[in-house]
Amino acid sequence: MNKNALAVIYGNTPKKMVLEILNYLNIEDNIKSKNSLIGIKPNLVVSKPSTSGATTSPEIVAGIIEYLNCKGFYNLTILEGSWVGDRTSRAFKECGYVDLSKHYNVPLIDLQRDSYRQYKIDGICINICDKAMELDYLINVPVLKGHCQTYLTCALKNLKGCIPD
Question: What CA–CA distance (Å, rounded) separates 54 from 45?
Fold first, then answer.
């Protein structure tokens, strides 16, 4: 597959669709080793179920976990830092991720409670949570939605959950 290509799939069976598209993408070819620490970063900005349109469906993350496990990757974690007005622990529970974590034995990392370090990139200083920087591979699982400041949110804005409050 062309590294710059966009893969699109339509349907209403999230886990099945994720498995299908990941088989097409062969992401395992980009992961250094079976022992690599792989982080899955959903969008759990608020404590609302995915049916609200605000958060990532746990079925999508379940598909990612099953795909990676099938390919021999078990060193996985789910990490998130909800927005300042909510608690990540509450979002994990409300959005179905506590059950997901138990079912697949994948730990949840609350980045609101994580330590962080400052990084300087092109003259700009930014604080980034330590657990996010420990990852060998990051899978960003955003939700495409409207936003009052940026008009549209996508993959880049979802990574805001990796910076401390």
Answer: 8
Q: Which long-range contacts (CB under 8 A, 24 or more apart) does 66-72 make?
A: 66/15, 66/19, 66/104, 67/18, 67/19, 67/22, 67/23, 68/28, 68/38, 69/104, 71/28, 72/34
25-73 pLDDT tens trace: 999 999 999 999 999 999 998 899 998 888 999 999 999 999 999 999 9
* Residue numbers of the chain with a pLDDT score lower than 70: 1-2
Per-residue pLDDT at 83: 85
- Specify whether the CB–CB gap between 45 and 54 falls below 8 A: yes
Q: What residue ranges in 57-97 does DSSP mark as E strands?
A: 76-80
